[in-house]
């Protein structure tokens, strides 16, 4: 399927249960072999959905936001989120928090469109799991480069690196 078959729209409260399932499935797939198996097995679709409900309930005038990806079948196939940087030492004001796509959406071009919608022409940073070669290659292709920042995923100690894009 091609990119026009995929739709982007703002997160709505009615998306949260399905997005919780999709989000955790994407994590279990994308981080297999990169994060501890017991951590991935213990991820909760319900807790994730509760978190999405809190995000969906935020005031509309808050900067940033989340877009969901809707497949040709009408089902959610991922999401992307961006907003003000969360880093104390942020080299840019804007951060790409996540681009998470289920396998059927990968390679369709929808990730490029999602990134464009979330960032526009802004400078931005993002954090990516150091060993996530597919994600790092995508972000590099989209103009991001390693910035030098290093951290660890709080729950697992998995190394993360910061990337930056100057628009």
TrEMBL record:
PROSITE patterns: GNAT
Entry-linked Pfam families: Acetyltransf_1
N-acetyltransferase domain sequence ranges: 6-167
Signal sequence bounds: none
Coiled coil stretches, renumbered: none
Protein name, as recorded: N-acetyltransferase domain-containing protein
Organism for this UniProt entry: Terrabacter tumescens
């Amino acid at each position: 399927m091609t990119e026009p078959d995929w739709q982007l729209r703002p997160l709505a409260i009615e998306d949260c249960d399905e997005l919780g399932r999709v989000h955790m499935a994407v994590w279990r797939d994308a981080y297999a072999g990169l994060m501890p198996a017991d951590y991935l097995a213990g991820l909760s679709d319900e807790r994730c959905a509760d978190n999405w409900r809190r995000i969906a309930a935020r005031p509309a005038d808050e900067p940033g936001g989340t877009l969901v990806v809707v497949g040709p079948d009408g089902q959610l196939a991922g999401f992307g989120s961006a907003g003000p940087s969360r880093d104390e030492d942020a080299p840019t004001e804007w951060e790409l928090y996540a681009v998470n796509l289920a396998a059927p959406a990968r390679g369709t071009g929808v990730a490029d469109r999602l990134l464009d919608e979330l960032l526009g022409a802004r400078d931005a940073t993002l954090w990516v799991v150091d060993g996530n070669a597919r994600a790092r290659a995508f972000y590099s292709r989209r103009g991001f480069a390693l910035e030098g920042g290093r951290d660890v995923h709080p729950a697992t100690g998995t190394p993360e690196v910061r990337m930056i894009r100057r628009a």
